[in-house]
Amino acid sequence: MHRILTGGIVVLAALFAAGCEKKTSTQTETPATGTTGQTGVQTTGTTGSAGTEGSAGTAGTAGAPATGDVILLGEVGSLTGAQATFGISTRNGVELALNEANAEGGVKGHKLAVRVYDDQSKPEEAANAATRLITQDHVKIIIGEVASTNSIAMAHKAQPAKVPMITPSSTNEGVTAIGDYIFRVCFIDPFQGFVMAKFSRDHLKSTRAAVLRDTRSDYSMGLSEVFTRKFTEMGGKIVATEAYAQGDTDFRSQLTAIRSAKPEAIYVPGYYNDVGIIARQARELGIKVPLLGGDGWESEKLWELGGSAVVGSYFSNHYSPEDPSPRVQNFIAAYKKAYGGVPDSLAALAYDAARVGIEAMRRAPSLETSAIRDAIAQTKDFPGVAGTITLDEKRNAIKPAVVVQVGDTSSKYVATITP
Amino acid sequence: MSDLVQHLINGIATGTIYALVALGYTMVYGVLKLINFAHGDVMMVGVYFGYATAFQLGRAARTTLWGVLLIFLVAMAACALLGFIIERFAYRPLRDKPRLTALITAIGISFALSYGFQLDFGPLPGAAPRAFPEVIRPTEWLVLGDRDVVVWNWQVISLLIAAALMFILQYLVYRTRFGRAMRAVSFDHRVAGLMGIPTDRVIAITFMLGSALAAGAGLLYAIKDTAVQPLMGLYVGLKAFVAAVVGGIGQVPGAMVGALLLGLIEEFVVGYTASSWREAVAFGVLIVVLLVKPEGLFGRVAAEKV
To answer: Fewer beta carbons within 10 Å, N or C terminal of chain B?
Structure first.
C-alpha cells in the first residue's frame, strides 16, 4: 500500500518537475541571451547579445562589459514569471535607447552598455539583482522595475549605495519617497484619478458617476479616492460607491445597486482581469453607460475576458501608439524595425527612462554617481515619447496622461490631459 | 421593486452553484465524516477539462446540444476519475488514522491541485485567467420594463440542471439499493462491513459521485461568471462548505437550503448595505446559526445521515 502511495507521489513530482522544466526552457529563449547563474538570476545584455534579435547589431561596437571606456548601466526586470511581458518590453525599450545613443557617439566619448538581470517578478530577487549591479558591476544608473513593490525593494539598495535609480513605470507614490537618488519618468497614481474625473466632466459631460473599486488593492483604492474628490470638486455627483475584492467573479449585486442609482459613467480602476468580467456582467444587466479606468486595464486579456462588452469604455494611460506627434511615430517605427511589434506603454517609458539617464550623463560635469544624480534631478521639459518630462522636487515626473477608448481589437487615442 | 426582483434572481443563481458544490461536501462528510477540502479544487479541474473539451470541439460544435452534453460528460467523467484516485491513494490509507491526518491531507491535495494546474498541460488553460467559451449562446429569456429585470436563458438552464441533479441525488440516496448501502456506511462503516456491504466500493462511488457533481457545478459556474483560473475553487469551496454547515452537514436538503440562503444573504447585503460587508454578514450568519442550532438548520442530533 505504502509503496503504491510513494510511487504515486514520485510520479506526480516528476510530472511537475517536467512541467516546470519545460516552462523555464521556453522562457529562457525569449530574452536575447540567457546564461543562467547558480542563483537563478538570468543575465542578458546588449554587450554580448549581438545578432540574436537584430537590434543588437548596432550595439556590436559596445565591447566588453565593465572594463575600459564603456559606461555600464544596469536594468532589473521580470523576464520570467507572472509579469514576463512587462520585463521584456522594458528591456527592449532600454536597448533601443542605448543603441541610438551609441550611434550618436555615446556619452563623453564612451560607448554605453546595459546589464540586465531577471528578478522573476519577485521583490526579493529584484533586491538581490540591484545589489549585484551595484557591488559587482559598478553600474552608473539602475533602470527598473515595473511593479512598484519590486521597485521599492530595489530602491532600498540603490539609495544607501548612492547609485541613481530611475523607474520607468512604477506609479506608487512611495517609490521615490525612499530617497534623493530615486527617480521616475511616469506620473503617479493620484494623477490618474484626476485625469479620469476631468475627462468625464469635460469630455463626456457627465454629472453623475458611480465608483466600483477593489478593496484589496492600494492602487484601486487610491485612484477611486482621488476620482471621487476631484469629480465632486468639479461639480459632479458620485451617486454610488460599491466595492469588490480581487478574484471575485460575480459582480452582479454591486452592478444592480449601481444600476438603480442611474449613473452616466462608472469608474472601475481595477486590473484588466476583473474589469473584463465586470464589463460583461454590466452589459448583461442592461447598463449601457461607459466604464472608466486606469492603466491597470492595459492588456490583451481585457478583450479575451470582456469581449465586446469592454468596447467603447475609456481608460487613462501613459501613452498611445496612435498619438500623431512625430516623436512618438519615429519611436514606433524604430521599435518595430528592431523588435517587430507595436511598443506598449512599458517599452515607451523604459525608452524614456534610459534617455533621461543618458541625457543627464551628457550634461553632468563628471561621471561620478553624485554628479549624475544632480543632473537627472535637473531634468526639465525633456521630450519623452510618453509625454514631456519635468522632474519635480519629489523626483516625480510632471507630465500629461492620455485617455484611450477601447476599440474592437486595440485602443483608440481620444485625448491628452495635462496636470 | 424591480431591483428587488433582480437581486432575487442574482441570489438564486449564485445559491444554485453553492448548492451543487455543497452537495459534494455533504455526501463525503456523510459517509466518511471527512471534510474534503479538496472538493472546490476538484470543481476547478472539472472546469479545466470542460474548457479543453470546448476548445477541441471548436466554435460551431460546442454550442450545439450534443456539444454541451459532451463537455459536461467529459468534465464529469474526468472528475469522477480524479475523485476515485484521490480517495484510493490519499484518503483510504488514512481511514483508520486520526481524523485530523485525513483533514490535513485534504488541504494538501487542495493546494497540490490549485497550484499544480498553474502549469501548462496541453490544451488546459494554465495559470492566467481565461474566459470560458460561450457554450450556451446568451439570449434574454425574460425582460421586464426598460430592462429593469433581465433573466437570461443560461440562468434558467443552470437552475433546471441544478434542480435535476438534486432530484437525481435525492432519489439515489433514499430510493435505491446503493443509497441504502450508502446510508448504512454513513451510520457505521464497520458494522456495515460486517453486514456484507462492500464499504470500500460504496465510499469510492460516493467520492466519484460527489466529484462529478462538482464538475457539473463548476461548468455552470464558469458559464455564469466567465473567468477560469486555478484558484477559482478555493473561494467557492469555502462558501459551499459554509452553506453545507449552515444547512446541517450530511443532509442533502440542508445543503440546498443552506446554499440558497447564503447566496441570497450575500446578494441582499451588497444590494442594500455596503458591499464590503458581504463576507462579514455571511460568516456572521454562520456563527449565529451554529450558536442557536449547532447541528445546522436541517441537522438532527444523531440523525441518520448520508
So the answer is: N
> Residues of B at the A interface (Cβ-Cβ below 8 Å)?
3, 6-7, 10-11, 13-14, 89-90, 93, 112, 116, 119-121, 127-131, 138, 147-148, 150, 152, 221, 224-227, 231-232, 235, 266-267, 270-272, 274-276, 278
- What's the ipTM? 0.80
Domain that holds residue B236: 2-292
Structural domain count, chain B? 1
Contact B235 A247 (CB under 8 A): yes
Residue B216 CB contacts under 8 Å (≥ 6 apart), including other chains: B20, B46, B72, B75, B76, B161, B165
Q: Give the Cα separation of A83 and B129 in Å (integer).
A: 13
CB pairs under 8 A between A and B: 92
Q: Which residue of B has its CA nearest to A286?
A: B147
CATH number at residue A270: 3.40.50.2300
pTM: 0.74
Mean pLDDT (chain A) is 82
Q: Apex CA B260: angle with CA B246 and CA A306, to 5°? A: 125
Residue B297 covered by a domain: no
pLDDT (tens digit, 9 = 90+) per residue, A6-61? 444 444 444 444 443 333 333 333 333 333 333 334 344 433 333 333 333 333 33
Tens-digit pLDDT profile for residues B6-19? 889 889 988 988 99
Report chain A residues whose CB lies below 8 A from the CB of B231: 247
Is position B173 within any domain?
yes
Q: Which of B226, B239, B267, B273 is best to mutate for the A interface (most A CBs within 10 A)?
A: B226
Residue pLDDT, tens place only, A230-254: 999 999 999 999 999 877 888 998 9
- The domain boundary, picked from A265, A286, A317, lies at A317
Regarding whether A273 and A225 lie in a shared domain, the answer is: yes
Q: Cell numbers 436541517 label which residue?
A: B298
Contact predicate A187/A401, CB 8 Å = yes
CA distance B82 to A350: 47
